[in-house]
Amino acid sequence: MLGLDTAIVEHKLLLIPNAILVQQQLRRMKLEVAIKIKEWKASFLAVVEYLQWVANIVLVPKKDGKVQMRVDYKDLNKASPKDNFPLPHIDLLVDNIAQHSCYSFMNGFSEYNQIRMASEDKEKTTFITTWGPFCYKVMPLKNVRATYQRAMVTLFHDMMHKEVEVYVDDMIAKSKTPRQHIDDLRKLFKRLRKYRLRLNPAKCTFGVGMGKLLGFIVNERGIKLDSDKAKAIWNMPTLKIETEVRGFLGRVNYIA
């Protein structure tokens, strides 16, 4: 994958002063995991010769019963300061999108894997496998949302709050008329093509009068809560401990 033009953004991995370097030891690895890593190598991994930070592969269960492979970057994340580049306020974002007659909802393909790691920081992402040590050529860890949002703001700086709104890897084109929408999409796709940002066709919808976004439904008349979001709150089990209460209040506050 070629990836987003590095003139727009690279993911830099800064470390706090006097960070203690950690090299994890290789853990036992299932055969299917080792095979999957070989597939990864072909697209966005590089072989590492001189080890710095070293992490391990971990398996994370998904809601559908499958497992997802991730890298245990807890040590590296602790040593990396938080990137405070702001994400949009969701209420303002949704307000800006509503009351248009034509929408297109788009999502970036492979999300964060489109953004390249800065050359000097690649080897910090090293993880160990039965095939040897590898590092990422694309951004895999802490601060990725901030980096992606920064890239989108740079890419669409003159279109945001006019023809386009962006929230991390979600892009929404909005227009008052179908004819204007076609012109807006031409402008947007010209920008995407120039800087090599790829979309995921399975997660894109074009030229519609309404759509779901971040738990809300937007259309020409305004905004309403997505019924699936309300149903999830309604069907929550009885709250028993403090963390569950906090989670409930967080959900309610999100849609308030």
UniProtKB/TrEMBL annotation:
Domain of life: Eukaryota
CDD domains per the UniProt record, alphabetical: RT_LTR
Pfam families in the record: RVT_1
UniProt domain Reverse transcriptase: residue ranges: 60-217
Stored Gene3D superfamilies: 3.30.70.270, HIV Type 1 Reverse Transcriptase, subunit A, domain 1
Name recorded for this polypeptide: Reverse transcriptase domain-containing protein
Organism: Mucuna pruriens
